[in-house]
Amino acid sequence: MSYFLEENDFEVFNYIQQELDRQNTHLEMIASENFTFPSVMEAMGSILTNKYAEGYPYKRYYGGCEFVDKIEELAINRAKKLFGCEFANVQPHSGSQANGAVYSALLKPYDKILGMDLSHGGHLTHGAKVSITGQMYQSFSYGVELDGWINYDKVEEIAKVVKPNILVCGFSAYSRVLDFKRLSEIAKNVGAILMADIAHVAGLVVAGEYPNPFPYADIVTTTTHKTLRGPRGGLILTNNEEYAKKIDKAVFPGMQGGPLMHVIAGKAVGFMENLKPTWKEYAKAVKLNAKTLAEVLMQRGYKVVSDGTDNHLVLLSLLDKEFSGKDADLALGNAGITVNKNAVPGEIRSPFVTSGVRIGSPALSARGFKEKEFVIVANKIADVLDDIKNTQKQVLIKSELKELAIKFPIYTKAIF
Ligand code: DSN
After folding, report:
1. What Enzyme Commission number does this protein have (predicted)?
2. Which of 274, 304, 320 is the last residue of a domain?
C-alpha cells in the first residue's frame, strides 16, 4: 500500500501543486497572509495529528501524552518569553476562538463589549452584529476619523457612556500605532478590562517594531500565522493569574475539545524562529517595505488613508475614483497581485464593493523583497489602477511580475 498523496488522491495532490505554482508566481499582498517556515509545515504535517490530548500539560484526560506535554510546554514557554508575560494558552484553533474564549471566560451573556467598528478596520469578533460576539453580548463600537486616525478623546467619550465590561483594541485594517497606555487609562476609568487583539502586528511587536500592549493590556490575543509567520492558529496571553485560570477553563473544556497538537508543535517551532536575532531584520523590512509602498503610491497621486503607515499595511482609498475596491481587487488580481477590497473611512459603497484596497508587505518581505522591489511593485499597482479597464496591460504586467517573483523563490515543494 502506498501512503503518498500523489498516488492515493491525485485530485487533491494536483490542486495543491497548482496552489504551489500560484504562491510562487503571484505577488501575495493580502495584509493578513504570510509564508510560514518549512520547519513549521513539517511539524504540522507530522504524526502529532493522531494524538488526543484534552486538558493541559501534565493534566490530561488521555494516556500517552508524555511527549505532547513537552511540546505544549515548549510552545507556552516560548510564547511567554516572546511577549514578556506570565501566562500563555496556545490551544485556540484560531484568533476568533481566542477572542471568543476570553469573552466567555470573563463576561456573562449580555455584558458589554466596546470594540472598533468592523467597517472602520475592526474585526468580526470585536462585537460585529453578524458575529456571535455581537449577538451574545451587547456590543458597541468606536471608529476612526475621516482622516483615518483614532481619536482617543472620542473613544473615551463613548466608553463613558457605554461603560463596557471589556474594551477591545486591535484591528484588521488600521495602519497606525495604537496608544495602549491611553486605552488602558480609558478602560480603567470606566472599570473595563482591556483586551488587545494584536493579530495583525504581533510579529512586529515581538521584534520591538511596534509597541507591546503589555504592561497596559490585561489580556492580549493574537493569531500565529499573520506577521508572526507561524502555523494557522490562535494564542491568548496575560499577566493576571485569575484571568489565566478562567481563560484556560474557557478554552478547554468551555469552547474546544482536543487541542491540535500538530499545530501546537508548529506554534513552538514558529516561536523559535521569532526568538532568533534574524527575526528583527524581517520585521524591520516589513515596516520599511510598507512605508515604501505607501510613499510611491502617494507620489503617483493615490490617496493612502492617514497619509502613510506605521506597520505592515497600507489602506488605499479610492473614494475619489470612479472605480471601486472590488474593481481594483479584480484588476490587480488579473495582473498577478493578490490584495483584498476593504472599506475606508467615509465609505459610501457596500461591504461587497467598498472604496478601498488593503495592501500588505509581510508575505513579499518573507520571500526577500526589499525597498527596490517594492518600488517596482508599487509602480505596477499604480500602472494597473491608472488604466483600470486595460486588460491587455494587466496581462503584460502579470508576466513581468511573474519574472520578478520567480527570482525570489519561496517554496520548492508543496508538501512537507
Ligand atoms: N481575516 C483576517 C484578516 O484578513 O485581517 C482577520 O481575521
Report:
1. 2.1.2.1
2. 274
- 52 is a catalytic site residue: yes
pLDDT single digits (tens) 194-227: 999 999 999 999 999 999 999 999 999 999 999 9
As a whole number, the mean pLDDT across the chain is 97
Q: 393 and 253, same structural domain?
A: no
Confidence of residue 2 (pLDDT cuts 50, 70, 90): low
Q: Which CATH number do you get for residue 378?
A: 3.90.1150.10
Is 410 within a domain? Answer: no
223 is annotated as an active-site residue = yes
Question: The domain containing residue 212 runs over which residues?
Answer: 41-274
Q: Which residues of 34-62 are buried (b: 16+ CB within 10 A; e: fewer)?
A: bbbbeebbebbeeebeebbbbbbbeebee
Per-residue pLDDT at 31 exceeds 90: yes
Q: Which of 52, 152, 182, 402 is catalytic?
A: 52
Within a domain: 192: yes
Sign of CA dihedral 322, 323, 324, 325: negative
pTM, 2 dp: 0.97
In a domain, 352, yes or no: yes
CA nearest ligand 1 atom 1, residue: 32
Q: What is the pLDDT of residues 158-198, one digit of tens each?
A: 999 999 999 999 999 999 999 999 999 999 999 999 999 99
195 vs 101: CA distance, rounded Å: 12
CA angle 356, 173, 289 (to 5 degrees): 90
Whether residues 208 and 129 fall in one domain: yes
268/295 same-domain check: no
Distance (angstroms) between ligand 1 centre and the Cα of 105 equals 23
CA of 32 to the centre of ligand 1 (A): 6
Quote the pLDDT of residue 3: 79
Counting from 1 in the atom list of ligand 1, the atom nearest the Cα of 340 is 4
Residue 1's pLDDT is: 60
